[in-house]
Structure formats: structure tokens, C-alpha cells
């Protein structure tokens, strides 16, 4: 009878005594039972021997216990088990043998071979990733919280080299040089450094008073101590001075002020549900351009989303028969129109021709092609129009696609159209050959028909009306000195030398318009005749409203030539601004530059923060800060990165 038959009988008859096991169990069963008992003893003994920490109540991680078991067993028979894998903290990445608790393990050649292949694969992938990141580096958003006096972002080393935290211990990790976007340079002469600090203090004075008396408003009345808004901003309070001044604050290192402005933009800049008529041109160059610049230099996606939000509200203005946008748009209803005074409702060359830098960049960083398509349509319309003597009139009818009044100017109504032809070519890393061709042809015609020289030897751009020259040059046209010189450096001979020389000559003339006034500030427009040169005649031409164009050309010419005269002229402008435009509540324009005690207009323009002070600061900084090799400035002086050259381009 087997054991399996005995046990049921036992349970059915509990009152009977069990039969002795020695009699019931056969030898095989006794052996089996013995093994079971022996296994239980070994298991208990192993628990105590291999896991001694359990006896003391110390709960160490299970991974340590496993390694202790391996170590004890290895002492008995290392040839019968797999090699103990190294602890992570003891891992050595140089191919040398690995150490554990003072002992050196015998190398497992199969393991070493696998490690070598894995290491080679990782190094190859890292190399490919590094090469890709040379053109597309996306540092973490730099939303600074450091003190106002901080001048260099912590995400870059003093020399502008970006280095990941994880790379600090890798000696052979190549360094990626990022564009310099803050500071100004400590290696400049003490005198230049002092002048730069003076400009920085001017920005502090202008910003602090705006923040005190007009925060959230578009502009400041520095004498009245209240907000101000021009018609171009409609009836809303959109914080134009905040958006216009943010990148200047960042470049100068005012990080607390930048952070406050950034937070205002995030919380309050919203056009949804707003019914107000805005200038398409001004909204683009100040708001879209300013936000895109902040996105480029910080990587903060909030700025990109706000720029997209605003640009999308401008799109209905392009819904014309030709695709040439209207000048004004109601952002609430989407209806648009042109100024009634503009040649029977025509669109203006300097407005519809000054969209490409912002819209092309916006398409690249959002993946939305509609903005670039709008620019391409404008380009095709104006290219196919016959141009009188190769010149571009200032007015174009958006219904018919034909030119309006035959008024041609490098100043008001025309100016930035030519600027954007050149800079669109540069922004594209010189791949937009259509823009280059249009720029060269336009300059050939303008230089051939409009460049004049006065009796006193001053070179200037005259205006043309219905085929006749008017010997007047706007302050706005003084940007052409820098534009021609910048373009010349990128063109081949003979245009190179010709354009650089013209740029210098025009900048000299514009300086003369400043130097020949009592205040040493230039008028809104100046004329040339047998009686006068580089001076205003009419009262409505004698005012100065903190404009930047002359200083812009000083900055560009300094960067290109390092001729000290441009810094000297810039410093003269600083002294004149401090003497005649500074008031307790900020900076104001003046109504007559030829008066020893000019009347002040009580307006601190937003472009004073965006352009005038930025160009002055850069004039007294080293060339690496917002380098002209890596950035182009939009017509509101907001720096935008050059594609394929500047890793801050951040295209998707």
C-alpha cells in the first residue's frame, strides 16, 4: 500500500493511532524526504550567511544584497558563474579594467568587445547630433531673475560659448560658440566704457519713468507724467514702449526690468476681442518685430506665440485684389482700408514693402507658410510693374496693381522698402537672389537719378516728383548711409567700393545737418540751394523727435570701418540729448533744433528705447555684441538672426 492510500484512511479514521513511518516509508521516499529537509536547512543558513543585514534590522537596498551574494559565491567558484557586473559609480569609461572594493576583476573579452561597439555607436551619434546643432542650437529659455546690474546670461560663458551641464566633465567635448547678446565688452578703452555706461543710464532713466507714469500705455509724456498714444496705435493700450524696449533692456543687462516687461506681455498683450484700428506697418515692425527679436535672443516660446497671435490679426489686410495690404486694419472686425490722403487710397511703398523680415522669419519658426506666401505675392506684383526710369514710386493701388502719384523718395513713404530688399537677402544667408537683384537694380536707379552734390561738396539723396527733383532730404533718409555701406561690404566690385564710399558721404552730410544746428541735433528734413546747405527752411521741418536714423548710420559705419569719427559724432549726439531732451520724467522731443532753448514736445517715443538708445549702446560696445555677421536689424532696430549662420534662428 502506498503512502497516498494510507493518508486518506488516516483522515477517515481519526480515532485510530497512525502506523509508524519507518514501516510505511520505503527507502526512496526516505531519501526524498531527507533532501527536502536538507534544502530547508540550507535556505535558512543562506539567509543568515548571505544577508547578514537582516539580523541587524538594517534595510539596505536589495541591489546591495544581490551583489553581496555574488561576492560570496565568487569566492567559492568564480569559474562557474557570470562575471559580476560593475557598480555604476565605479564604472570607468576609458576602457581600463574596472575595480570593485579594491579588487581588480579579470576582463571579460566578450563584454569589452560589446562595450567598445556600444561606445563607438554613442560617439558617432553624438558627433552627428553636434554637427546638426551647429546650425540649430536651442538653449533653454533664458527668463532671467538676476539683478539689474547682471550683464551676462548664465547660460553662456563670458566668451559667448554655450556648454551643457552634462558636458562639463567631458574634456574633449567641442564647444559651440553662440552669438553674443549681452554686455558690451570689458576690453574696450576706459573712455569708451564710460560712454557706454552713460547710454545705459539714459535707458534706465527713460524706462523707469515710463514704468512709473505710463506702465501699460503705449508711450510716455515725460513732462506731464502720464501716458501717450499716437493714432498709429488706435484707441488701445498695448504697451508699445514695453514691447519696443524689451530687447534693448536685455542687451544692456537690465534683467529685472526685462522680466517685469516679459511678464506684462504674457499677461496683458492680447488682441482678442479688441476693436481698434491699427497701422499694419507700425504693428508689424514694433510689435511683431520686437516679439520675434525677444524670442530669438531668449528662446522663450511665449514671445513666438504672441508674435504669431498679432501677425494673424494683420492677415485680413492682405485680402485685396492684388494681395498688396491696406495700411490700416480694425483688429476686431478684420476690415481694412488705406489712408484717404495717400494718392486716392493707394498703399504706401515703405509700408507694404516692409514686412518680409518679420513674416519670412515667422513662417520659419512656426511652420506656417502663409506669412511667407504673402510676401511672395507682394514681390511678384511689384516686380511685374513697369518702373519709371527704374525707380519705385511711393504709391501703389491695391486694386489695380498700378503705381499712384509719381513721387519717389529715399525718405518718408519709400525708405524701408529698400532696406528690406537688402536685409531679406542677408537674412536668407544670401540665398534670396531675387531680393538681391531687386536691391541692386533699385540702387542703380536711385543713385543714378537721385544722388546729388551740393555746391559745398555735400552728397545727398534728392526727392523726385513727377520727373522733377526736389533738393530736400529727410532725416528718415539718413539710414541710407549705413544701408549702402552694409550692402557694399557684401557686393562685388565695382559696386562694393562705390556703395561704401556713398554710404560714408551721405553719413557725413547727415552729421552736418546736426552740426549746423544750435542744439547739435538734426531737423526732420533739410534742404540744399544756393543759399543754404543741410538746413531746414520750413517750421514743420525743424523739429527733432528723438529719431535714430543718423545714429544708426554712425553705428553701422563704425562697425564696418572702425573710423573713430563715428564714435565722436555719436558722443556729440549723446551730449545734445542730455542737454536738450532730458527732463526729470524721461526724454522729450524738441520743436526747433535751431533754438538755444527749444520748446519741448512732451513725448517720449517708443522708438527712442528700441532704436536710438540701442544703436548708441552698440556704438560704444565691441563688435561681437549683436554682430552684423549674425544679425540683421529690422527697421525698428529689433535684431533678427541670419538663417544658417546664427544658431538663434530657431527654425523648425
Automatic annotation (TrEMBL):
Transmembrane segments: 31-51
Location, primary (coarse class): membrane
Pathway: Protein modification; protein glycosylation
GO CC term, one of those recorded: endoplasmic reticulum
Enzyme class: hydrolase
Entry-linked InterPro entries: 6hp_glycosidase-like_sf (IPR012341), Glyco_hydro_47 (IPR001382), Glycosyl_Hydrolase_47 (IPR050749), Seven-hairpin_glycosidases (IPR036026)
Highest taxon, organism lineage: Eukaryota
Organism: Daphnia galeata
Catalytic reaction list: N(4)-(alpha-D-Man-(1->2)-alpha-D-Man-(1->2)-alpha-D-Man-(1->3)-[alpha-D-Man-(1->3)-[alpha-D-Man-(1->2)-alpha-D-Man-(1->6)]-alpha-D-Man-(1->6)]-beta-D-Man-(1->4)-beta-D-GlcNAc-(1->4)-beta-D-GlcNAc)-L-asparaginyl-[protein] (N-glucan mannose isomer 8A1,2,3B1,3) + 3 H2O = N(4)-(alpha-D-Man-(1->3)-[alpha-D-Man-(1->3)-[alpha-D-Man-(1->6)]-alpha-D-Man-(1->6)]-beta-D-Man-(1->4)-beta-D-GlcNAc-(1->4)-beta-D-GlcNAc)-L-asparaginyl-[protein] (N-glucan mannose isomer 5A1,2) + 3 beta-D-mannose; N(4)-(alpha-D-Man-(1->2)-alpha-D-Man-(1->2)-alpha-D-Man-(1->3)-[alpha-D-Man-(1->2)-alpha-D-Man-(1->3)-[alpha-D-Man-(1->2)-alpha-D-Man-(1->6)]-alpha-D-Man-(1->6)]-beta-D-Man-(1->4)-beta-D-GlcNAc-(1->4)-beta-D-GlcNAc)-L-asparaginyl-[protein] (N-glucan mannose isomer 9A1,2,3B1,2,3) + 4 H2O = N(4)-(alpha-D-Man-(1->3)-[alpha-D-Man-(1->3)-[alpha-D-Man-(1->6)]-alpha-D-Man-(1->6)]-beta-D-Man-(1->4)-beta-D-GlcNAc-(1->4)-beta-D-GlcNAc)-L-asparaginyl-[protein] (N-glucan mannose isomer 5A1,2) + 4 beta-D-mannose
Keyword field contains Transmembrane: yes
Cofactor: Ca(2+)
The protein's name in its UniProt record: alpha-1,2-Mannosidase
Compositionally biased region (Polar residues): 145-158
Disordered: annotated span: 141-169
Active-site residues, as the UniProt record annotates them: 282, 415, 524, 549
Amino acid at each position: 500500500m502506498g503512502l497516498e492510500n494510507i493518508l486518506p484512511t488516516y483522515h477517515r479514521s481519526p480515532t485510530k493511532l497512525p502506523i509508524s513511518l519507518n514501516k510505511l516509508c520505503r527507502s526512496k521516499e526516505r531519501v526524498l524526504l531527507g533532501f527536502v529537509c536538507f534544502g530547508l536547512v540550507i535556505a535558512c543558513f543562506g539567509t543568515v550567511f548571505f544577508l547578514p543585514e537582516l539580523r541587524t534590522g538594517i534595510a539596505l537596498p536589495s541591489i546591495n544584497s544581490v551583489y553581496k551574494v555574488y561576492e560570496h559565491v565568487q569566492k567559492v567558484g568564480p569559474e562557474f558563474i557570470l562575471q559580476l557586473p560593475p557598480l555604476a559609480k565605479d564604472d570607468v569609461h576609458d576602457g581600463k579594467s574596472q575595480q570593485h572594493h579594491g579588487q581588480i576583476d579579470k576582463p571579460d573579452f566578450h563584454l569589452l568587445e560589446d562595450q567598445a561597439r556600444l561606445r563607438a555607436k554613442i560617439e558617432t551619434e553624438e558627433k552627428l547630433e553636434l554637427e546638426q546643432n551647429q546650425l540649430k542650437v536651442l538653449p533653454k529659455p533664458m527668463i532671467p531673475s538676476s539683478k539689474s546690474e547682471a550683464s551676462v546670461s548664465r547660460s553662456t560663458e563670458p566668451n559667448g560659448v554655450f556648454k551643457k551641464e552634462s558636458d562639463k566633465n567631458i574634456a574633449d567635448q567641442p564647444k559651440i560658440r553662440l552669438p553674443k547678446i549681452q554686455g558690451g565688452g570689458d576690453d574696450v578703452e576706459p573712455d569708451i566704457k564710460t560712454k557706454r555706461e552713460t547710454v545705459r543710464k539714459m535707458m534706465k532713466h527713460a524706462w523707469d519713468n515710463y514704468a512709473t507714469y505710463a506702465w501699460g500705455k503705449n508711450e510716455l509724456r515725460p513732462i506731464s507724467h502720464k501716458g501717450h498714444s499716437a493714432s498709429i496705435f488706435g484707441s488701445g493700450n498695448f504697451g508699445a514702449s514695453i514691447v519696443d524696449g524689451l530687447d534693448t533692456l536685455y542687451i544692456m543687462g537690465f534683467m529685472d526690468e526685462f522680466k517685469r516687461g516679459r511678464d506684462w506681455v504674457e499677461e496683458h498683450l492680447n488682441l482678442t476681442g479688441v476693436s481698434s484700428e491699427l497701422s499694419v506697418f507700425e504693428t508689424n515692425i514694433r510689435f511683431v518685430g520686437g516679439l520675434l527679436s525677444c524670442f530669438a535672443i531668449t528662446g522663450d516660446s511665449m514671445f513666438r506665440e504672441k508674435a504669431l497671435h498679432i501677425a494673424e490679426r494683420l492677415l485680413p489686410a492682405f485680402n485685396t485684389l492684388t494681395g498688396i495690404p491696406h495700411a490700416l486694419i480694425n483688429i476686431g472686425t478684420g476690415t481694412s482700408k488705406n489712408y484717404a490722403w495717400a494718392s486716392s487710397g493707394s498703399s504706401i511703398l515703405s509700408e507694404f514693402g516692409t514686412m518680409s523680415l518679420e513674416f519670412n522669419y515667422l513662417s520659419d519658426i512656426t511652420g506656417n507658410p502663409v506669412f511667407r506666401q504673402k510676401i511672395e505675392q507682394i514681390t511678384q506684383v511689384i516686380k511685374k510693374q513697369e518702373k519709371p526710369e527704374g525707380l519705385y514710386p511711393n504709391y501703389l493701388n491695391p486694386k489695380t496693381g498700378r503705381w499712384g502719384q509719381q513721387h519717389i523718395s529715399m525718405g518718408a513713404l519709400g525708405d524701408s522698402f529698400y532696406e528690406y530688399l537688402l536685409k531679406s537677402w542677408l537674412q536668407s544667408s544670401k540665398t534670396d537672389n531675387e531680393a538681391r537683384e531687386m536691391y541692386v537694380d533699385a540702387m542703380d536707379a536711385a543713385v543714378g537719378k537721385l544722388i546729388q552734390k551740393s555746391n559745398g561738396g555735400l552728397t545727398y539723396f534728392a526727392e523726385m516728383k513727377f520727373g522733377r527733383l526736389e533738393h530736400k532730404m529727410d532725416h528718415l533718409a539718413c539710414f541710407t548711409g549705413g544701408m549702402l555701406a552694409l550692402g557694399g561690404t557684401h557686393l562685388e566690385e565695382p559696386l562694393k567700393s562705390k556703395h561704401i564710399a556713398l554710404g560714408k558721404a551721405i553719413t557725413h552730410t547727415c552729421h552736418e545737418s546736426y552740426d549746423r544746428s544750435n542744439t547739435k541735433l538734426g531737423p526732420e528734413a533739410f534742404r540744399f540751394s544756393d543759399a543754404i546747405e543741410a538746413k531746414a527752411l520750413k517750421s514743420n521741418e525743424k523739429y527733432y523727435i528723438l529719431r535714430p536714423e543718423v545714429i544708426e548710420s554712425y553705428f553701422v559705419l563704425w562697425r564696418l570701418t572702425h573710423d573713430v569719427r563715428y564714435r565722436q559724432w555719436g558722443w556729440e549726439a549723446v551730449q545734445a540729448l542730455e542737454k536738450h531732451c532730458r527732463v526729470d520724467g524721461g526724454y522729450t522731443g524738441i520743436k526747433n533744433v535751431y533754438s538755444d532753448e527749444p520748446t519741448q514736445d512732451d513725448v517720449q517715443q517708443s522708438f527712442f528705447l528700441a532704436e536710438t538708445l540701442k544703436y548708441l549702446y552698440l556704438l560704444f560696445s565691441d563688435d561681437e555684441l549683436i554682430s552684423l555677421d549674425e544679425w540683421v536689424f529690422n527697421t525698428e532696430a529689433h535684431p533678427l538672426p541670419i538663417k544658417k549662420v546664427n544658431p538663434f534662428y530657431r527654425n523648425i
